[in-house]
Amino acid sequence: MDLSPVTDALAVKSFDKIADICDTLMLQVAAEGISFHDDWPYAIHLLGYFYLDDCDSARFLWKTIPASVKESKPEVAAAWRIGQKLWTRDYAGVHEAIRGFDWSQDAKDMVAAFSDVYTKRMFQLLLSAYSTITIRDLALFLGMAEDDATTCKLSFSEISSASSVLLWDNTRNVIA
What's the pTM? Predict the structure, then answer.
């Protein structure tokens, strides 16, 4: 089974194409009748869906993964923990699931890229939902320390209208 299109996409960091490449290859391999379950990059495939914010497809893929693969490949289970947190909208839990596993070299860059994309999505969600937010809550949603959340808010202001969001510390003093 030739997984070179997947490895090529990972090498050039085309993470937005991973899910489609995996879907196409899986259909080709299945049509040829080749047994692929033991060698399939399920963790990468799941992460590709998460990168695209496609939890429905990831959930469907999870249901098709044989139990033996789920049990024998901890990285697949770790990728699915991210999916579970996304599915239940446990925003802080997503970051915990990301940090809670020692990812393989193949997945490490993709997980880091997903984490960045997810943090930006969360920031945009917070922008649309809040006019004021405490630093503690911002840090919780973004999965970072409070000092980092303040810095993050200021750096994200370059890509959005983040200046319209006020940050409050625990004593209700305006921070930014």
Answer: 0.82
Instruction: Return d(Cα 139, Cα 17) in angstroms, integer.
Output: 30
pLDDT tens figures, 30-55: 898 888 888 899 999 999 999 999 99
Torsion of CA 112, 115, 45, 10, to 10 degrees: -30
Residues composing the chain: 176
**37 close to 6: Cβ distance less than 8 angstroms:** no
> Residue 120: which of 96, 143, 97 has the closest Cα?
143
Q: How many CB atoms lie within 10 A of CB 124?
A: 14
Distance (Å, whole) CA 109 – CA 166: 32
* Distance separating alpha carbons of residues 57 and 63, to the nearest angstrom: 10
The 3 state secondary structure assigned to 125-150 is HHHHHCCEEEHHHHHHHHCCCHHHHH
